Each structure stands twice: as structure tokens, then as C-alpha cells.
Amino acid sequence: MTFVRPSFRHPSQPTNALGYTRKDYEGAISTLCAGCGHDSISNAIIQACFEIPLEPHKVVKMSGIGCSSKTPAYYLGRSHGFNSVHGRMPSIATGANMANRDLVYLGVSGDGDTASIGMGQFIHVLRRDLNLTYVVMNNGCYGLTKGQDSATADRGSKSKKGIPNPFESIDLCEMAIQLGAGFVARGFSGDKQQLVPLLKAALLHQGIALIDVISPCVTFNNTSGSTKSYQYVRDHIEATGTFDFIPLRQEIVVEYDEGATQAVTMHDGSVITLHKSVSGIDVTSRRHALDLLEAEREQGRLLTGILFLDPESEDTHAILKTSLTPLNQLSREDLCPGAAALDEVNGHFR
Amino acid sequence: MKPTKTENPEYFHHVIDCQYACPAHTQVPEYIRLITEGRYDDAYMVNWISNVFPGILGRICDRPCEPACRRGRVEKEPVAICRLKRVAADYKESIKARLPVAPAAKNGRRIALIGGGPASLTVARDLLPLGYQVDLFDNQSAAGGFIRTQVPSFRLPKEVLDEEVNQILDMGVTCHFDHYVGSMKKMLGQGYDAIFVGTGAPRGRDLADLPGRREGDPFIHIGIDWLAAVLYRHVHRIGTRVLVIGGGNTAMDCCRTARRLGGEKVKVVVRSPRAEMKASPWEIEDALHEDIPIHDQLSPLEFVIKDGRLAGMLFERVEGRVDDQGRRRLLPTGEAPVFLPCDEVLLAVGQQNAFPWIERDIGIAFGRNGLPVLDEITHQSTLPRVFFGGDAAFGPKNVITAVAQGHRAAISIHLLCEGRDLHQRPHPRVNLTGQKMGYHDWIYDSHVTDDERQIVPTVEKVKSLKDRLLEVELGFDRDRGQLESRRCLNCDVQTIFIAQTCIECDACTDICPVTCINFIAGGDEDDLRRRLQIPADNREQTLYVSPVLPTGRVMVKDENVCLHCGLCAERCPTASWEMSKFTYHEAQAEDV
Q: Does A335 touch chain B (CB under 8 A)?
């Protein structure tokens, strides 16, 4: 097997505003199965970070256990990273985020790592609205242990074994909307045109941003009876619309027709303009989003794109009113201000 | 843009940049791989079949392949293809038994070759195995033509030349050396079925009208004649201060030979700016290395004679400017003339064709430029059984072009003798061989090394300048040759896309190190070139476009900088990319 990717790149590969090329965001060569959707997501992450652009040394990539959680090795080779315990990525991310709020946190998890063993962690990180981009590489099966159905496998879906899944599935996006996440989206690994802008918007969103990415498992779950195969997803996909993501600092030059578009100004002043393909959609309404997800599901369709966006959402630091200086940068003097300061604090309670 | 027709052998041929650029279409990646495997005999034979003179060309070829080499677009420098050819020639053991043999029973056809240079020898090699009787006429005492008389021995040793020339003569050529053909009319009367003219461009241009030319004659020499005189040992010495006029490869040979015959202060003077000189960059480098300065943008004005001896030359400074008609020309700057002192002058200002021996009333038409009127494909003159090839056909080019033309003329002669249409050319022999061995194993070495181009070691300058017969370049040793051969990107191993089985998972796009694979909406060529992830700006390189895929998109691959690393095929879950070796064997007379 070729474990070495040639070091040459296209001689006219572009550089971004920070002077980096795409190569500066790459990682090691993937050891996942050929054709794995996860590799496409890794590449979308590389592309998004390159395009934003983020400084590689200011990104932290977090993961748990599973095929999905191996992927941080394959992107952002010059960033910080932590491959944690199964299902415990949110806790580790929380700790890191509390210690240093100035970095960009990117957590990657799978459907097993999130919807089974990590479910307890998942729902609470949503509730707390941690400033984290949470990407679920969702293939509906446990690929690393030979393809058993996972908790996100749709009822009736058949993997390679051929036995229909008897259980109800978990819709991670619906849960996230219910639990107060400020940015909820769904993507498909086979559609980078949609996925890259989703990732860019999510990475710049303040607070938790969940992207559930349907990512076919070519080895165990790309069969004709599966609802998470390349073919099935392509046949049943429906997008809320295409959208433009205009980061802060960039002038908005295009004017859109009010009826067919919806512009949402984000926390940092960036603007997301959605070109609606589903009529009447309002991505800032929780109830609307949940209704729409259910309605599309009844039709047997898979709704993708931005599903819910709360531009007012507050992240954990804002909720807890923590210090604006990252905690890991506070000095001994800041943390132990002395007896006089203690007396003053105590004075408030008298 | 319509789906690419890969069934047309020219498509994949074009992807093999080096082979495509080689006039004789030598299978370059194939022989380079054989060198990597240490199979020097096989590597030599792959060369010999196409270019006939691997040892010679491995030293003096003009290397059109190297500027074309894909590696040069990905990294700093191309693969040292030419020097690898020499490696094959240097380390081969015995290939005698593998050379074709002329059959004892002849086919009854007689061919005359006039001039014994590379073009004629190629015709002989192609036609002898088919049973032709071949008579060769040359006014020199040995065959080889230009490569014998004008290429100095320090670049091309006599033994190498003799070996490869004799390989052909020994196949059964009837040689008439020291035989100047003075009349084509007489040749035509001798009953040959076809006559091939490969007399080269034998006349060096003079500066006859320059003042002082006649008075200075004993000290002024025509470069190519002087080189021949050195070879035949009629000339042993040259003055201390020598001016070489001209900027081509002959000028470089003249100045370097002059350095070896006592020229201590040898200068090259050229009209054009340095960057536009015709000589190959590496030959200019070699001259500079031997302490020969190049004075550019100087146009000769006068030979200055003092007391009956040549004292030097006057030049006027020129520069490139656009004239009234919008053409760029070298025009005088108006500065005072420059005087360069010298004892002798060598003129290397171009070569001309000359056919004083061909009567103009026998049906062979000549154009205004003094060249014969020829069919560009068949090389046939207006007299059907007379063919021209090499420098004699379309003016001075290079050895490898002469070889290619020899092959083409041989096909024409064979077709003529068989009574067939000369324009019904035989097709190339092509083949595709899958390279897959296992899940991730390939027959070819797919690893792309980071090594930079190896430098050819040379003899110490002090030594080489004392002996004009001592070859300057030592060539690669085996180890260095293999380091260099591994730099080849195997561009003949083609990436073949099978649209029917593609599931558009993007795995190939994601893994491709040089971002050449794209899945995008179709469009016309300009539109596609613009919309690729990295726009395809190199228009000399083709786009490989698939039929429309299930999502309505097409696969577009920009062949420009593909490393042929096979990762697309390794990462494809449905084997929709295949790595297949494409062999393209240019048709020769035996394929008629």
C-alpha cells in the first residue's frame, strides 16, 4: 500500500490571505477504506479552514473513538489536537475551551460516538452552548467493528448483513434544535459545494454549531437497502436552500429578493444569506425548523443545509460571565488578588 | 466539451510528453524503468529500435524531450533523459545477438543512399532486414556524416560513433567511401529502385562581403570545414587569440575545440542577445566553464588587417528594436564600433544546403530557398523514386530529427517498391497493459521521489583542455543513473476513468496531490478550463473529460501536472480509475 503521498502540489496552487497554501492545512495520508465519506469531510474541513482563513496553530481538533475520530490525523497537521475517550469528546473540548477561549474548537465524532456511548455528553454540551463546531460523521453503522446498525440507522434500513433495522432512529439535528443549539445544519459528504460553506459558517459561529454530515460507509453500509448509501442520499436529498456566507470585514455587494432569501447577521457581524428552495422556511424559528424536519421526513426526504440559526445565542463563556482573558493566561496575581480583595468580596455578603 | 476519445492512440501518446516531443517517438519512460531495474541491454534496445543511435544521442542529442518533461513543470528540473540514454549505452553488455539480420535471400530491390549520415543509416537499418540491397555513397572515408566530421571527439568519442555506425554497416551495406557523387543523372541511370539523398547541409555560411575578408583569408576559417580538418588531423594548432563568430551549437564546438588546440583567449561573438542564442543552454554552459566569454549584441563590421596579418575585428553594437513594420530586428545602437583583437577567426554563422550535383533538368524541382520540393509526409521529391531526408530535406535541424525522417522515408521507399499508395501510412503499434497487482500494489514503481536532478561528473578542466580526444563528460555511474531514473514520473502509465462504475464519492479528488481531478458541470473547453479547482492554464496540455455522470456532472482531469502516482486508483472504491501502461510504437518500414 502507498503510505506516502507525493510531496509535490500543483505549481499554481493558490495562497489565502494569511499566505498559506492548502497544503499547510493537510494532514497525514488517510488509512480509512477507499471511498469512505469521512475522507471527503476531512477535505471539506481542510478547504473551509483554508478559505476562511484560519491560522492552523489557532485551531484545536478534538475527537473520541471510531472511524470518524481517526480523521483528525488526516487534516490540520499543524494544529492542536486531542483524541479522547469514546464518547467523551465534549468534556475534553469543554475543559480546553474553558482554559483558552481564544482558540477555534473543532470536534469530530461519529454516530456511535455521539448517539450511543456519548449521548449523555452530547446533550449537555448542546445545553451549555459550548463554543465548538461539532461535526458528526454519520454513516448509520459501527464501521470500526464490522458494521452493526447504529442509533442513527433509519428503521428498516439494511446494511451489508441484509437485516432491516428494527429500531427507531435518533435525529441528531432535531435533538440539537430542541436543546437550544444556535447553529444546526445537515450536510452530505458527497456534496462539498454545500458542505464547505456550512463548515465555514459553523467555525465562525459563537456557541455550539452542530453539523450532522451523512457520510456513507462504503464497506458496510453502501448497499441498495441502506438509507445512508451514496445512491439513496442523492435520490432523496432536499436542501433548505443554497446560501452565501459573507464573513465580517467583507462588504455585502449583492442584493437579494426578500421573498426568496433570508439574511441572518451572526454574532461577529458576518452575514449568512439563504436562497430558499423550500418555500416559507424561516431558519431562525425553532418551531418552524422542527416542523419542517418532520414534514420532510414524512415525505421520505432528507433535509440538508442550514436548518436552524439563532443569531442571538450565547456561548458558555457568555452564560457563565467568565473572564475575557483566557483562564490559562491569568497570572498568580489575577487568581490570588490577596486578603484585601477577599475582604471586599466578603463585604458584599454582609 | 465532448467526452475524450481515449480510443484514439494519439490521446494517451500526447500525455507521454517526452515521447511525444521526441521526433522519433522513443519510448522514454519504458527505457528509464528498465534502467531502474538494471536491465541495461533491454533499455538500450528500446532506444535502438526508435532512435538507432542511443550511445551517440545519449551524448549529443538536442533533447527536445527534456523541456517537455512533466517533472520540469512540477519540480525545478526535468529528468536527465538524454544522460540516461547514455547510461543504457554505457552499461549494456552484449546486444549483438538481438540486432536484426538481413535475410540471405534478397527481395531483388536495390536502393542507393547518397551521404552517410544518420538519416541514410536509418534508412539502411530499416530496409536491410526486409531484404533490400543497399548501396551507400559518401565523399568521406567513413560513414557518420556530420556527427563524424563536425562533432568534436571530446563530446562524442570515436569508439562510440564507430560502434553504432558499424552496427548498421555490418548488417550488409555496400559502402562506396571517398566517392563523391557528381551527377544525379548518372545515379538515376544505374537502375536503382529508389534513391535516398541524405547529404546534410554541407556548406558553412561565409561573411564574404565583409571588408578584409579576402586579405585575411589565411586566418579566417569556416567553422564546419575547420572542425572536419581538425578531425582528419589537417589542422593541429590555432592562434592564441581566437574569435568565434556565431551563437549556435557549431560555434560552441568551434570555441571549445579552439581551446584544445592552443587557443588561450577564445571569445564567442554573437549578434543576438545572449538569451536568444540558438545554442543549447548546456552547451553554452560548457563553453563558459572552459573560460570562453560570450560577447553578445555585436554585429561584424570588418576584418582588420595589419602588415598582411589579421589584427582583429570591428563590430557594431546592436539591440533588439521594433522597426516600422512592427517586426523585431537587431538594429545598430549608434555607439562607436568595438575592436576585438585576434589572431584567427572561426565563422559559425549558419549552414546551407547545396545540391550542385543534382541537375535541374531531370525532374527534381527545387523551391526558392534552394531546398527540394518534397511531400512533407512521404519525403518524396517530384521525381517519384528520389527521396530526401535529414538536413538535406527541410534544412538544418538535428540528429534525432534526421533519424525520424529516415524512418519515414524508409516506409515510403518500401511502399513505393511494393507498388502501394505512399499516403496509406502504417499505423502505430499500441497496447494498454493493466498495472494492478494487488490491493495497493502496482507493477510499476508508483512512488514519486523528491530527489533533484543528478549532475553529470566531468573530467578535470586542466586535463580535458590538453587533449581534444578526451571525453569531457564522464556520464552517470550505475548508482547515480538509478537515482536519476527514479525521478521519472512514469507518464506512460495512464489514468483511465470508467464512468459507468463511478459513484462520485470524491475520493480521487480528495487524494490527488496536484488537484487535477474535478467533478463539475459540463461546458465548453474554455469554460471548463476556467472552472477547475485550479484553472487549467497550460493549453498545450489536454483535458480528459468523461461522459455525463448520474449527478449530471462530468469528470474533468487536467493532464498537465498529473504525477501518475496511482493514488486516485488506490483510493477508488469501485475501481473506476485504472492504471494502464500505454505503449506506443511508431510505425517503421517493417510495419508496412
A: no
Quick one: what percent of chain A has pLDDT higher than 70? 92
CB atoms within 10 A of CB B170: 11
Q: Give the type of residue at B127.
A: L
Question: Grid cell 555511474 — which residue?
Answer: B477
The SS3 assignment for A118 reads coil
DSSP three-state, residue A131: coil
A3 contact B CB<8A: no
> In angstroms, what is the C-alpha Rg of chain A?
21
Q: Tell if the CB–CB gap between A40 and B506 is shorter than 8 Å.
A: yes
d(CA A83, CA A72): 8
Model ipTM value: 0.88
Please say whether the dihedral angle defined by the alpha carbons of residues A50, A54, A55 and A58, taken in this order, is positive or negative: negative
Report the predicted TM-score, pTM, of the whole model to 2 decimal places.
0.90
**Closest Cα to residue B242, out of B221, B225, B228, B227?**
B221
> Do B550 and A234 count as a contact with CB atoms less than 8 A apart?
yes
Q: Provide CB contacts within 8 A for A343, sequence distance 6+.
A: none
Going from the C-alpha of B500 to that of each of A323, B237, B278, B458, B544, the distances in angstroms are 59, 73, 50, 55, 16
To 10 degrees, what angle do helices B478-485 and B28-36 make?
Answer: 130
Determine contact, residues A205/A265, Cβ cutoff 8 Å. no
Ordered by where they begin, the domains of chain A are 22-320 (3.40.50.970)
The letter for the amino acid at B571 is R
| The predicted structure's pLDDT at residue B202 | 85
Residues of B in contact with A11 (CB under 8 A): 73-74, 561
Nearest CB to B513 within list A8, A35, A231? A8
Task: Fill in the amino acid letter for B353.
Answer: N
Tell me which residue of B51, B69, B72 sits closest to B60, measured CA to CA.
B51
Q: How far away is chain B from the Cα of A288, in angstroms, using its nearest Cα?
A: 30
For residue A11, give the chain B residue with the closest CA. Answer: B74
Compute the distance between CA of residue A86 and CA of residue B120 in angstroms, rounded to an integer. Answer: 77
Q: Output Rg (C-alpha) for chain B, integer angstroms.
A: 26
**B495 vs B510: CA distance, rounded Å:** 16
pLDDT band, very low/low/confident/very high, at A264 (cuts 50, 70, 90) = confident
Evaluated on CA atoms B106, B107, B108, B112, the torsion sign reads negative
pLDDT tens for A31-52 read 999 999 999 999 999 999 999 9
Q: How many CB pairs under 8 A join A and B?
A: 97
DSSP assignment of A294-320 equals HHHHHTT-EEEEEEEE-TT---HHHHH
Say whether residue A236 is in contact with chain B using an 8 A CB cutoff: no
Residue B434 in 3-state DSSP?
strand
Q: State the virtual CA torsion across A322, A327, A332, A334 in degrees, nearest 10.
A: -30
Phi and psi at B579, nearest 5°, equal: -105, 115
Sheet containing strand A271-276, edge to edge, reads: A241-246, A271-276, A261-265
Distance CA B351, CA B200 (A): 10
**Residues of chain B with C-beta less than 8 angstroms from the C-beta of A42:** 510
Grid coordinates standing for B13? 501518446
Instruction: State yes or no: cis peptide before A53, omega within 30 of 0.
Output: yes
Which segments within B421-551 are labelled E, that is strand? 429-434, 493-497, 517-521, 543-545
Q: Which domains are assigned to chain B?
A: 110-202+353-417 (3.50.50.60), 204-351 (3.50.50.60)
Choose the mutation target among A3, A7, A8, A32 for the interface with B, i.e. most B CBs under 10 Å: A8
**Band of pLDDT at residue A283, cut at 50, 70 and 90:** confident
Backbone torsions φ then ψ of B236, nearest 5 degrees: -120, -20
